[in-house]
From TrEMBL, chain A:
Keywords in alphabetical order: Signal
UniProt superkingdom: Bacteria
InterPro entries, alphabetized: Bact_solute-bd_prot1, SBP
UniProt entry tagged with the keyword Signal: yes
Originating organism: Auraticoccus cholistanensis
Signal peptide span: 1-25
Pfam families according to UniProt: SBP_bac_1
Protein name: Extracellular solute-binding protein
Automatic annotation (TrEMBL), chain B:
GO CC annotation, single: plasma membrane
Regions that span the bilayer: 38-63, 96-118, 130-150, 177-205, 231-251, 290-308
Domain of life: Bacteria
Keyword field: Cell membrane, Membrane, Transmembrane, Transmembrane helix, Transport
Family designation: Belongs to the binding-protein-dependent transport system permease family.
Membrane topology note: Multi-pass membrane protein
The protein's name: ABC transporter permease subunit
Organism name: Auraticoccus cholistanensis
A GO biological process held by the record: transmembrane transport
UniProt keyword annotation of Membrane present: yes
Compartments (UniProt record): Cell membrane
Any single Pfam family the record assigns to this protein: BPD_transp_1
Keyword Hydrolase: no
Length: 437, 314
């Protein structure tokens, strides 16, 4: 059946080629060997589609012999599943975007992707990024967008109005929350949005830099099965989420509010703090452009101020599956290269509000960066940054978002939630065939 | 008497009645079938490719750690793992709660509506369509609609309750209410089928019995208790079996409304399995499906035998 489809596809392709050649003959077009059509798959939602459309337009202008068709699929766990299914059934688009780090490792890149180690842009990549798109056998992806941090986005205008200082320890943070609750009763001290369950994970995932400061061997020992979230310092993230719930600091509609609701609340000053990934500043730019300059960020504070550091997420990347061949492969490589060329960088800076520094030296930092970037840069300058756990360890339990919703809603205690997550992680480690589990 | 019971059964549970009336040995020898046997081939091929092969393949994959790229045989580990799932116990409890609540409410409401819609009331045909209408709407569509209606902030239901001075709960977001709310939505959607089956069962009861009983001075309650209820038993059996099976393997509505949340409070077996699948634990989720298959079979075979036997004894 597959073979027949392929034959049909070739027949159709030949017809298209013939017609386009005829068209070229008449109009004296630029292409000398006809055009190549490649398919580019990205996630729907957020800013991925506007970025992809702008990038395709710029690329086609510079490369008239290539036609890029855009495909979209959902993100999140549903997208993970689709990506794996498409790769294993050899139905993947010619170029696609996907996460870097542990999720990439789960795609089995050595078997399913085309290595890009010999490409010209590889030398420009930051070492941290190159690491999270590589296996011992090669490098597979080029960055899309900027790195971002998972930390507390806060409303600076509100902080100024109430005379608050950026907290560096958990107790200072809670003191700020109490001040906000007392002096601005209409404002939710902390925004939580469990209508989009993934947003509930930041207390835990964003706390990782603090865990690693307290115990620099944590990530490595965790991968080997010798550390767990049920014990300190890993437990701190869960514990803080429970404390925040018990102190009644969340917005009233936290069980049903969505990610976009949360950003709106933050932008309009209905909420003071929102633990979130900073690339969501692009969404604020889209929906509340006037508020972008009011938004700042600080690291989720550790119990001990000396351990407070900020957790950094590497950007997603663009990959080529091993099913892309011949002239399509060549065109796909050109498309990937374009992403990290000066023209590609210009498109990225134009469409996206950067949520952090670029990870390739080919893309210069934009000049009119919003204040949130300056906040992030301070942490980079002082060296108080750590990559998120998913970039240091291949294990990430899939049920974390449901567990953190339960902890943040007072259904499960922090200790029970952490223990459940440890169990979840054990399954993932076994699925990956790691030693020691 | 015997013939009327059979006719009621035929209306209420057509496939089973047909099977009962099949002369023994018919079809086995293929002597007097209307069509040549190879007419069965296309349907048979589809059945084998899309049902039989995947079912048997799943028994194998349930014993492996499967990434879609590689398969590693690990014996019964997946089943051990599956039964250690923290959500699983709650998933089982929730599944049974959901199955029994929806099934019981469908029987009670279906019978009540059936009685109402077979009595002489105004706009009977219109009302029958209204009751049946939700059955025709897509489950996912219903889930999304109710998610909006039941939103605790600005949702129509709680706004209306607020106008009456009642503070409605977070129907789908309060852990104490979530599963029950979804079960109620399921009943709203499915009661049309139950009503339809009951209407068919009720109209098949001969009026003579009621007339005779009335002559003997029976009250309305006695008519219902002594005549209607025993004679709609086949319909009740069908409704119970259908809605119990539906309830035990319910998934779409739960996924569209709560995704098993908040936390794991409205997870049922099917949603636990789906989450394993989403997480990429393909072997584990296949093992879960085998477990679900066994559990549903283990419950439904006795239920179905029990209900059928009573019907035949009569």
């Amino acid at each position: 059946m597959n073979a027949r489809n392929r034959r049909a596809a070739i027949a159709v392709g030949a017809t298209v080629l013939a017609t386009s050649l005829a068209a070229c003959g008449g109009g004296g077009g630029a292409a000398d060997g006809g055009t190549v059509e490649i398919e580019f798959l990205t996630q729907d939602g957020g800013t991925s589609v506007p970025l992809a459309e702008a990038m395709i337009e710029a690329f086609q202008t510079a490369n008239p012999d290539v036609v890029v068709k855009l495909q979209t699929q959902p993100g999140g766990t549903e997208g993970d599943n689709l990506t794996k299914t498409k790769l294993s059934t050899q139905e993947m688009s010619d170029v696609f975007t996907y996460n870097s780090g542990s999720l990439l490792q789960a795609l089995n890149p050595d078997q399913t992707l085309v290595p890009l180690s010999d490409q010209p842009w590889v030398g420009d990549l930051s070492e941290d990024f190159a690491q999270v798109v590589s296996t011992p056998n090669g490098l597979y992806g080029a960055p899309v967008g900027t790195s971002r941090v998972g930390a507390v986005m806060y409303n600076r205008a509100l902080y100024e109005e109430l005379g608050l200082e950026v907290p560096t320890s958990w107790s200072e943070f809670m003191a700020n929350n109490e001040t906000i609750a007392a002096e601005a009763p209409d404002v939710a001290p902390i925004i939580q949005t469990y209508g989009d369950t993934w947003t509930s994970q930041l207390f835990v995932l964003g706390d990782f830099a603090n865990v690693q400061s307290a115990d620099p061997q944590w990530a490595a020992e965790y991968t080997a099965g010798n550390r767990s979230y049920a014990e300190e310092p890993g437990l701190a993230g869960f514990r803080h989420q429970q404390e925040a719930f018990e102190a009644d600091l969340f917005n009233e509609d936290f069980p049903s509010a969505t990610f976009e609701n949360g950003l709106r609340m933050l932008a309009e000053g209905e909420g003071a703090h929102y633990p979130m990934l900073t690339d969501s500043i692009s969404t604020i730019q889209q929906n509340n452009p006037d508020a972008v300059d009011d938004i700042g960020v600080f690291a989720l504070p550790a119990d001990d101020a000396a351990n407070t550091a900020i957790t950094v997420w590497q950007p997603n990347a663009i990959y080529i599956p091993s099913t892309t061949e011949d002239e399509k492969l060549e065109a796909a490589k050109r498309f990937v290269t374009f992403f990290n060329s000066p023209e590609g960088c210009a498109v990225q800076s134009e469409v996206l509000v950067p949520g952090g520094p670029f990870v390739t030296s080919a893309c210069p930092a934009p000049e009119d960066a919003p204040p949130i970037i300056a906040d992030i840069q301070e942490y980079f300058d002082s060296g108080a940054t750590t990559p998120a756990l998913e970039f240091l360890s291949p294990i990430k339990g899939p049920n974390l978002e449901n567990i953190t919703v339960a902890v943040g809603s007072g259904i499960t205690s922090a200790a029970d939630g952490a223990a459940q997550y440890d169990e979840d992680v054990r399954k993932q480690a076994q699925q990956l065939g790691l030693e020691g589990w | 008497m015997a013939s009327t019971t059979t006719s009621a059964a035929r209306v209420a549970a057509l496939p089973r009645a047909t099977r009962l009336e099949e002369p023994p040995g018919h079809g086995r020898g293929g002597i007097r079938t209307m069509y040549p046997s190879w007419f069965y081939l296309p349907a048979g091929a589809l059945y084998v490719v899309f049902f039989a092969v995947p079912t048997f393949a799943s028994f194998y994959f349930a014993l492996t750690r499967w990434t879609l790229f590689d398969v590693e045989f690990i014996g019964l580990d997946n089943f051990v793992q599956f039964f250690q799932e923290p959500q699983l116990v709650q998933g089982f409890v929730n599944t049974f709660f959901y199955g029994f609540v929806t099934s019981a409410l469908k029987v009670v409401l279906g019978l009540a509506l059936g009685l109402l819609l077979t009595s002489q009331i105004i706009a009977r045909g219109y009302l029958r369509s209204v009751v049946f209408f939700p059955v025709l709407v897509s489950t996912i569509g219903i889930g999304i609609t109710f998610k909006v209606l039941l939103d605790p902030f600005g949702g129509l239901v709680n706004e209306s309750l607020a106008a009456l001075g009642i503070t409605g709960p977070g129907w789908l977001t309060d852990p104490a209410w979530a599963l029950f709310s979804v079960a109620l939505i399921d009943v709203w959607k499915g009661v049309g089928i139950a009503t339809l089956i009951y209407i068919a069962g009720l109209v098949a009861i001969p009026q003579e019995y009621y007339e005779a009983a009335r002559v003997d001075g029976a009250t309305s309650w006695q008519l219902f208790r002594r005549i209607t209820l025993p004679l709609v038993r086949p319909a009740t059996a069908t409704v119970v079996v259908l809605s119990l099976i539906g309830g035990l393997r319910s998934f779409e509505l739960i996924w569209a409304t709560t995704r098993g949340g908040p936390g794991f409070t409205s997870d049922v077996i099917a949603s636990v399995i789906y989450k394993q699948y989403q997480a990429g634990f393909y072997g584990l989720s296949t093992a879960g499906n085998v477990v679900l298959f066994v559990v549903v079979t283990a419950i439904m075979i006795p239920v179905s035998i029990l209900l059928n036997r009573k019907e035949v004894d009569r």
